[in-house]
Write a structure and sequence with these properties.
Elements (H helix, E strand, L loop, with lengths): L17 H12 L4 E4 L6 H13 L4 E6 L6 H12 L5 H8 L13 H10 L6 H13 L5 E6 L1 H9 L4 H18 L5 E6 L4 H8 L9 E4 L5 H14 L3 E2 L3 H9 L4 H17 L4 E2 L1 H12 L2 H18 L1 H17 L4 H11 L6 H14 L3 E4 L2 E4 L2 H11 L9 H8 L1
Helix pairs in contact: 3-5, 3-6, 4-6, 6-8, 7-8, 7-14, 9-17, 10-11, 10-12, 11-13, 12-13, 14-15, 15-16, 15-17, 15-18, 16-19
Length: 411
């Protein structure tokens, strides 16, 4: 089991999640379209790809389309077509429908070149028809096919910020629902996933009926024993000796077993041992590495992605509200009802229906794993994220519930 902290993992490097894979496998085989949700760094991509790998071993076809950078429905359809290009027979069928673009054998093209030619044939009026053709081709294929469309919520949020964005999101989701339901019972199994929540988005837009055909499965963190077991297995396979209690101390420092954070903490401890010419890690080293590496400059790039994803999900104005909530919860230990009132006063002149917007943003923060409700207040789930936000804002975040901050906001 290699120490891998960035890309998705599979095969021998894939750890645990057997029960989750069993559940997903059952629903996929039963023909239920899946919405795989969960906070960032929980391993959704690894789970989806590992499921696809295992199904391929049984004769299925597997296609994974990442639409994070898509700016239009045409881009999404093209990414799906590219992902399906290696599936024997699918590309040929698509090429026949766009014969004017493909004078050569489409299966001899690279997926990238195929995608370029395919994209050239799409326009605002043609994408639904060609998208339906793709889905129908999959449903009629002799092999069962698992198609994963990853980071769809990021695309939808980008679409939402365009002119008449709600109508565009509605159009795309309505089209996808109709296209999938039209081929129910065929060879195609669909899974949607993303690092920001789809459910809060459609609820806020009043479009929940566009996604109610999806079976949502939430991928949660590892429990303490699983996190400890993973840490100790990494230590064994990487020939690092650890004092009794190191794995437990690492879990306690993180506060929650987010798989990527467990892997990243181990990697930092391994580097620490190497740089200090040591072949063992002691319990006292855990807090040192936590403070200097995970919360220090080396850990900043990874944690900055949490801010970036939140901005992608909310847009600038609502991101500012979310960041204020998180800074308050980090610096003060909780986001209280009085702090909420102060925050609403702070933004009341800038954003309409501020109370509703704050409620929506809190739903996103809870759904995406930043905060949890606690007797009327909200607290961080992860100690690492809490400490990181506190480190960034401790010196310049006034307590929201103070009269001083509210009065200054209203001036």
């Amino acid at each position: 089991m290699k120490s891998i902290t960035g890309p998705w993992v599979s095969g021998e490097d894939f750890f645990d999640r057997d029960r989750e894979l069993q559940v997903l496998d059952r629903h996929i085989r039963n023909g239920n379209p899946i919405l795989l949700s969960g906070q960032r760094r929980m391993g959704k991509t690894s789970v989806a790809r590992e499921l696809g790998r295992r199904l391929e071993q049984e004769g299925w076809a597997f296609a994974f389309a990442d639409v994070e950078h898509a700016a239009s429905p045409e881009d999404v359809i093209t990414k799906v077509a590219e992902a399906l290009h290696p599936v024997r027979g699918i590309a040929s069928r698509l090429g026949e429908r766009l014969a004017r673009l493909f004078s050569d054998n489409v299966e001899q093209l690279s997926a990238y070149d195929f995608g370029i030619k395919f994209r050239a044939g799409l326009n605002a009026g043609a994408w639904p028809r060609h998208g339906e053709s793709i889905i129908r081709s999959c449903a009629e294929h002799e092999q069962s096919i698992l198609l994963v469309i990853d980071e769809l919520p990021i695309f939808l949020n980008r679409l939402l910020r365009q002119d008449d964005g709600r109508a565009l999101v509605d159009e795309f989701l309505s089209w996808l629902r109709g296209a999938i339901q039209d081929v129910s019972g065929g060879s195609l199994a669909l899974m949607l996933s993303g690092s920001i929540g789809l459910t809060p988005l459609v609820r806020r837009l009043g479009l929940t009926d566009r996604t109610n055909y999806l079976y949502e499965f939430r991928l949660g963190p590892w429990d303490r024993s699983t996190s400890v077991e993973c840490f100790n297995q990494l230590a064994r396979t990487n020939a690092l000796s650890v004092e009794d209690g190191v794995a437990e101390a690492a879990y306690d420092a993180l506060g929650v077993g987010i798989p990527h954070h467990v892997q990243s903490f181990f990697a930092r401890l391994l580097d620490f041992a190497t740089m200090h010419s040591r072949d063992a890690i002691k319990v006292v080293d855990v807090e040192t590495v936590y403070q200097t590496d995970l919360l220090g400059p080396f850990g900043q790039n990874d944690l900055m992605h949490y801010e970036a994803r939140l901005r992608d999900a909310l847009g600038e104005n609502e991101f500012a509200i979310a960041n204020a909530i998180l800074a308050e919860a980090a610096v003060q230990g909780q986001f209280t009802p009085s702090a909420r009132k102060a925050l609403e006063a702070l933004f009341a002149t800038k954003i309409e229906n501020i109370s509703e917007r704050v409620a929506d943003i809190l739903e996103v923060l809870i759904h995406d794993g930043y905060l949890e409700a606690d007797d009327g207040s909200h607290r961080f789930v992860s100690r690492l994220l809490k400490d990181w936000w506190a480190t960034r804002y401790a010196d310049h975040h006034p307590t929201l519930s103070s009269d001083h901050s509210v009065g200054r906001a209203n001036r």
